[in-house]
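Re: [help] complex structure
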Amino acid sequence: MAVASNVRDELAGSQWDVVVAGLGPVGVTLCSLLGKYGLRTLGIDRERSIYTLPRAGHVDHTVLRTLEEIGCLDEVLAEMIPNRGMELLGGGGEVLARIPVAPRTPSGLPASMHFHQPVLERLLRENAERIAGITLRNSVRLVSFEPAGDLERIVLEHEEQSFEVRSRFLVGCDGASSVTRNHAGLGFRDYGFAESWVVIDLILTQFPDTLRRDTTFVADPKRPHAMIEMPGMRYRFEFMVLPGETPESVTNEAAVHRLISGWLQPHHIRKIERAIVYTFRGAQAESWRKGNVAVAGDAAHLTPPFLGQGLCSGVRDAANLAWKIAFFLSGRLPSGILETYGSERGPHIDNVITTSIEIARNLCMLDESLAQTRDRAMLESGLPEEARIRFKLGELRTGPLVMPSGGMYMISPQTGEGPLDRLIGGNFMILARSTEALGSEAALAWWQALGANVRLTGSLPACAAVLDAWLQKRGGDVAVIRPDRYVLGCEKSLDAITAYVEAGMR
Ligand SMILES: Cc1cc2nc3c(=O)[nH]c(=O)nc-3n(C[C@H](O)[C@H](O)[C@H](O)COP(=O)(O)OP(=O)(O)OC[C@H]3O[C@@H](n4cnc5c(N)ncnc54)[C@H](O)[C@@H]3O)c2cc1C
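Output below.
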């Protein structure tokens, strides 16, 4: 994107609904969602352009669902390849565990896809630029902020000159060392795990038979490692950095060739895109919001990448936060709605971080006898390979906007008017089996004032049977689906759901 030479003149003194600091994948996705709500949104990034090297390589169906909402699913999917599943091998090559790709997802979208992050970021960026009300600028750094009445007074910097803008809300998507998180004093709780791995990204001339095409983790105590196929003749190796090794000693060209020599010879490699050492950690913000300032993505949490969930979780943050900001700023719901951002996202990501660390601790075992004990425990567990590592993306915990009967992702069957997700759009949706289930006039009016889309399942003949069966299975006749596609509650009458939300938002 061209950077206006007079960015400072253009932005100084301007006022926004939301300023998003940091235009990595999470920041751009959040800008797009906010723009869809008609909010005047300024997105800034301190770098001159998109980061050109890949980090994340995997997304799940929850991310694809959000991409569909912001309007770039098809173009992104065209650049992805399906994940063929994951195997964990012992040092001798025996299969310790397997995570197959789920054959079905609630939305019907693919469960797990591999991608090249710079391509994803470019497509996200191009899509965001097409959404009205969004202004995205590079080479602009967030410096500080403070409340000024109902607004945040935000100090930015462009080419070493600072200037101010004002905004009703500020979200820091500014990565692991987030200025937003630090300046707001939100805290960062470390989970006490840190291991360094060298990540090697290659572009190949061909795929020799020696290369595996599924995602493979090898828990070899001599050197734990991982192999992942990426789109566009790309392939990634990850090797644990052993005690006594320096980053330089595992990233120089000779070291890279030595590390991968068991699978690839120099003529198989068109280019070593990069070899870099990352220290994988687990951390979570102690608070996710203070007043009208919040954090999302790596600014709010870090997770070892062995489940491929860091970016995915960041996109789920954006999906959780965008509608809450929109409903709060438009005065349709009180500030209590913002409280639910951290209280919902915190426990959800905690499950992802702790499971990732558990896998990482098992994988990173360098002691031969401990590794043998681990292997035996898995092989002799009596469990099928598919049941030896368990990871299930959690539901949302019960809270003011999640009833005990809710918290799961809604299904998105084809309705004849597109997938159900498209009918939900950015609003609440009420699905009822009968007019009786819609309860009192007051309850219906309450939701209609919020702009909820109210439908009887019978008015969607293409999927009425599927929706009725879904409601029946949960013992309800009516469900409220939130704008982020999570089910708020599924009850016999809308009155019960309305009373629950009204009490929680008071
Ligand atoms: C090796 C590796 C493999 C991974 N694999 C996966 C995977 O398979 N799947 C997955 O889901 N996740 C994975 N992750 C995690 C994933 O890469 C990150 O979670 C994701 O990129 C975070 O996105 P983000 O937008 O929150 O932050 P970032 O991508 O870090 O973006 C932050 C942006 O903020 C900008 N910024 C920072 N400070 C300021 C400031 N003061 N002012 C303005 N701008 C600022 C930066 O320039 C940057 O553009 C992996 C990570 C690594 C390292």
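The chain has a mean pLDDT of 95.
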